[in-house]
Structure formats: structure tokens, C-alpha cells
Amino acid sequence: MSKQKLPIRNESQCVWSKINNDTFIISDEGAMFHQLNTVGEVIWNMCTGTCSIKEIADSLCNEFEIEKEAAVKDVVSFLEELSHKGLIHFKEGE
């Protein structure tokens, strides 16, 4: 997956809410329910179509003191999972 791809939440396919300190994603038809951990929440919040995978990984490195290679791997893996479930899609970065 290209680090220049820009992930975007599929707002027509899911809803999400932050309750207390937890973020939850529910698919549109209610078939899937996800509770995000802190790292997942940061990634999800950056899926706006303006942040590249590289930028998301950089943010994780700064916030959680994670090594760059591990951050990129985690971001790509999580975004692929969200994409397969139809919760996000990608557009090409410029």
C-alpha cells in the first residue's frame, strides 16, 4: 500500500461515537461493532482524506514513541482491516 494514499472514513457506511474515553464504530446496518484502543482512535481520527499513511505513522511516532517502521506497519495493517470491512476507502495523495 502506498504511503501517499489518503484514508477517508466511509461516513455513509458507519457511525462512530466517543463515550467516556472509548471510541466505538458501528457499521451502518449494525452488523459490526468495534471498540478502538488509543492507537486505533488516533488513526481513525486522522482518516479525513487529508492525512497520508506516512503522516499518520509520523503522528503515532511522536505521540507514542513508536519506531517509524513499526508505526507504518501498524497503520497499514489497521487501515487494511478497516478497508476490508468497508469502514474507510482511499484516495491518491498529491
What do you see in this structure?
With 94 residues, this protein is α+β, with helices and mostly antiparallel strands. It is 39% helix and 28% strand. The protein has a 3-stranded antiparallel beta sheet. A two-stranded antiparallel sheet has the order 1-5. Strand 3 and strand 4 (33-36) form a beta hairpin.
Provide the descriptors you would attach to this structure in a database record:
94 residues; 3 helices
How would the blueprint of this fold be written?
Blueprint: E1 5-9, E2 14-19, E3 22-27, E4 33-36, H1 38-45, H2 53-64, H3 68-84, E5 88-92
Antiparallel strand pairs: 1-5, 2-3, 3-4
Helix pairs in contact: 2-3
Give the gist of this structure.
The chain has 3 helices and 5 strands, in the order ββββαααβ. With 94 residues, it is an alpha+beta fold. The strands form 2 sheets. A 3-stranded antiparallel beta sheet has the order 2-3-4. A two-stranded antiparallel ribbon has the order 1-5.
Overall mean pLDDT stands at: 89
> Share of helix among residues?
25-40%
**Structural class by SSE content:** alpha+beta
What is the CA-atom radius of gyration, in angstroms?
13 Å
Helical stretch tally: 3
Low-pLDDT runs: none
Give the SSE string.
EEEEHHHE
Shape: globular
Quantity of strands, as a count: 5
Q: Largest beta sheet: what is the strand line-up?
A: 2-3-4
- Per DSSP, what share of the residues sits in E-state strands of 2 or more residues? 25-35%
What is the terminal separation in angstroms? Answer: 15 Å
Report the biggest beta sheet as strand number plus sense, adding barrel if it closes: 3 strands, antiparallel
